[in-house]
Design goal:
Glutaredoxin; 8 helices; 56% helix; 4-stranded mixed sheet; 207 residues; Glutathione S-transferase Yfyf (Class Pi), Chain A, domain 2
Length: 207
């Protein structure tokens, strides 16, 4: 059976759990990281030398990096509605997944650590203001995309891009800060909340 290692409050673990729910997969989940089982042990580092979660174990196959895990699980399940086989359609899904991981995540990191986690290492007012500004700017890109495409990031159909973007949208809505009124984003947020997987693993906190 598929095994997922990682603390259930982690945004990257939650995107994997949400993906598993969309696929109807059976799995076991073990809490690793933070106050749970350490990721610094030689045994865990043999699975992921970065000592980060999530990690999956699928038989003899071990994989880390949350977006890679989501793509693997969807491809293995043959769910072309979530990750198309056609190279151009698939590339569009992966484009937004990579943008979420590389650009959007980096924009909100300082603001989130300061305002939601109350980290004493993230109290510089200028860095906080810059993070909020950049985060909101990138969310305006999501707004424009939804206005152009419709209900979901790539159009009328839910895809794997919506799993990863949806997790970031939840974080943006839940973090106590000044944000623009982005009507398409908020409608998208409520639309995602109609999905059981999002209610279980997406809209379940701001962490």
């Amino acid at each position: 059976m598929l095994k997922i290692l990682g603390k259930s409050i982690s945004i990257n673990v939650r995107k994997v759990l949400w993906t598993c729910h969309e696929l109807g997969l059976d799995y076991t989940h073990e809490e690793y990281g933070g106050d749970f089982t350490s990721t610094q042990t030689p045994e865990f580092k043999a699975l992921n030398p970065n000592s980060l979660v999530p990690v999956i174990i699928d038989g003899d196959f071990v994989l880390w990096e949350s977006n890679a895990i989501c793509r693997y699980l969807v491809a293995k399940a043959g769910r072309q509605d979530l990750l198309p086989e056609d190279p151009q359609s698939r590339a569009k899904v992966e484009q937004w997944m990579d943008w979420q991981l590389g650009d959007l995540n980096n924009a909100w990191r300082y603001a989130f650590m300061s305002l939601a986690r109350h980290s004493p290492q993230h109290t510089d007012p200028d860095l906080l203001a810059n993070s909020i500004s950049e985060w909101n700017r990138l969310m305006e890109i999501v707004e424009q995309q939804l206005q152009e495409k419709g209900d979901y990031i790539l159009g009328d159909s839910f895809t794997l891009a919506d799993v990863v973007i949806g997790m970031s949208v939840n974080r943006w809505v839940m973090t106590p800060m000044t944000r623009p009124t982005l009507s398409a984003v908020f409608s998208y947020y409520e639309r995602l909340n109609q999905r059981e997987g999002f209610k279980l693993f997406g809209r379940n906190g701001n962490v």
